[in-house]
Amino acid sequence: MLKFVSWIFFIVVALVICALSIANRHDVMFSLDPLPFVFDLPLFLLLLAAGFVGLIIGSFVTWRRGSKVRTENRQNRRENADLKGQNTKLTQDIAETKAASQNNMSPTSAQSPRLEHQQ
Residues 68-89, buried b or exposed e (16+ Cβ, 10 A)? Predict the structure, then answer.
């Protein structure tokens, strides 16, 4: 269902871009005022380029703001891996200790002692 919605959204955006391109075909002069660069470009090209530049800048800003969270996630993953390793080692140590204690015990000492009541 989500894939269907994303395709519908993509088709709508594509139709809007096509309509924008057809309606704004006339050339406009683009200049960066203090610089000597002057271009005659179709208006839709300038609008799409401005949208693309805004998308890139917004993505970069979002990526930079998320750096703290990504750093914390990396540290948590490392700590989690270390703790899993320690847990595995301790579990093996417990199993070895139990096996060693069972091998050292005689069958008679393994049974619980019986208390006799004297009256």
Answer: eeeeeeeeeeeeeeeeeeeeee
Structure tokens belonging to residue 79: 């700590």
Query: Angle of helix 43-65 relative to helix 67-104, nearest 10 degrees?
Result: 40
CB 30 within 8 A of CB 39: yes
pTM tops 0.85 = no
Residue type, 40: D
Three-state SS sequence of the chain: CHHHHHHHHHHHHHHHHHHHHHHCCCEEEEECCCCCCEEEEEHHHHHHHHHHHHHHHHHHHHHHHCHHHHHHHHHHHHHHHHHHHHHHHHHHHHHHHHHHHHHHCCHHHHCCCCCCCCC
- Greatest Cα-to-Cα distance within the chain, rounded to the nearest angstrom: 117
Task: Give tens-digit pLDDT for 6-35.
Answer: 899 989 988 988 888 888 888 999 888 888
